[in-house]
Amino acid sequence: MKHQASVASRLYGRLDDVSGEAGYAEHPPRVGFFTDTSVCIGCKACEVACKEWNALPDPDAGVLKLSGESYDNTSALGASSWRHVAFIEQGPLDAGAPAAGGLSPADVLGPALAGLASPDSVAPATRWLMASDVCKHCTHAACLDVCPTGALVRTEFGTVIVQSDVCNGCAYCVSACPFGVIDRREDDGRAWKCTMCYDRLRGGMEPACAKACPTDSIQFGPLDELRVTAAARVQELHASGVTDARLYGADPDDGIGGAGAFFLLLDEPEVYGLPPNPVVTTKDLPAMWKWAGGAAALLVAGVAAAFAGRRP
Amino acid sequence: MSEERQVPEAEFRSYYGRPILKVTRWKEPHLPAYLFLGELSGAAAVLAAAAAATRRPALARSGRLIAAAAAYGGAGFLTAELGRPERFVNMLRVAKPTSPMSMGSWILAAHSGLVSAAAASEVTGQLPVLGAAAGLAASVTGPLLATYPGVLLANTAVPAWHTAYRELPLLFAGGAMTAAGAGGLAVSACRADRTDFDAARRLALAGAVMESAAGFGLERLHGLSGEPYRQGNSGNLLRTARFLTIGGAAATLAARRSRIAAGAAAALLTAGGVCAKFAVLRAGVASARDPRYVVAAQRGGA
Ligand code: SF4
Ligand code: SF4
Fold first, then answer.
1. Predicted ipTM?
2. Among A127, B40, B229, B273, which residue is least crowded by beta carbons within 10 Å?
3. Quick check: pTM over 0.90?
């Protein structure tokens, strides 16, 4: 029974020592990102720092593309975009003059700052949501589970990285990730995603995005500590009237066993392009093999039946 | 049908309508061709082993040759699908139970070896005992090769694939029987003496029933995740596939007497099987591209 439980927790559920489970006898504490979107100002310093440090190529090959989607022209995470700042404009932008006479900066910056600015400020007529998205470094990482070559591995820090000298570009990880994070670069044929700056971690430095973030919207540190910080931040926001605030990916009992990079959001996850309740696909793997095994047995039975009749 | 729309259109929100998931990089015709050739090789190996055991030498010979040719064709499409084809061998770098593609690569490698040995012995007449043993062993790897792609596709975040983890292996097992039966029918259409090929006809019929039933099961999949199997281009393809398969089954009934009917049955059944594979790929693409499917599956528990 003990053995069975450990097999199950490999695929799904709570897993407290993710590096230990991956075979690291001794390892540093699991690290992660807490991205507090309530203080994000949309400056994209994280995107730029990531591109620079990791020498990521331009996915659009020098062609200037404007999406028409607010200030977001990166549009999505991808093989060469490992941080992506989303911009969501909510509310009527020109629904007549707001009660306070024109939009105050607090209105524009959203309820989080509005609440802090002045207790009797009016409800904002419109708000911008900004959020810097990144690979979640899942506890149960589907990309890692399905990778057939062993290119995707768990590091001693509990993060998930691709070894680009091993990846053969099968693209299985691309379809397995429930967040649409990892992708294949079509020019070099391999899969790429955020490494949480593995090289910097090895050197005792924090990842480039967290270092560059001017508002501390991106916080880096041991995951346990970040979870405590985040819970306190949500309480603080709730106390100041920002009841929309919620954590995303912080629960170690969720469908992916908790994210190594989790978020504080001010609206439903899908508004930010995030799946509302992702579950690692390998949770159902034993059931899938059972059905495939049953189907294989039916195939054999079908052939046997075809030969069972009397010869003509 | 009222439960199909679990998230009313008006309540659905997204980030500029952009996909939540990455749309698969698996492409046409590679993936459908690989699925079809894999199942063909798998079932043809079983057919050949059974034919050998029941002393139907002509059918055994065709089965072995088809199994080998399809295994090589399938492996070729699989390799061409890789971003780095020259690193195909990395598939055998590890054996990873959580990766259906790793398991499948080992199955394919073992199966290809066995069917090659059986076919080589068949063609050269050398080492008949070893050839027969390899052929028999391939009747174990064959069914796995035919059905593991159901796990391969289902073990993804793609709603239309993941939700279909029961139906997909059944579709592929049925398709395998149909494809191998059709292979036998095609050979029989070229021969005057078709007595050995009675079993291939029966196999084609059994496969057509199973394949059509599984296709029907996909269409009936509960909730929004089943929608791509009912609607749009993928839904049309799946219905076309069933139409072809049933037509092929009808022609099979006349194939004992008529070589023309045998040839027509082989063509229709093969076309139906290939068409179903395209339908499955496109259904997955449709469900990954539209964030509605992801949100509905996770909020409504589709
Ligand atoms: S978010 Fe996707 S790419 Fe990142 S670890 Fe999780 S499954 Fe892998
Ligand atoms: S594309 Fe590379 S990293 Fe992704 S699953 Fe295939 S081998 Fe692994």
1. 0.95
2. A127
3. yes
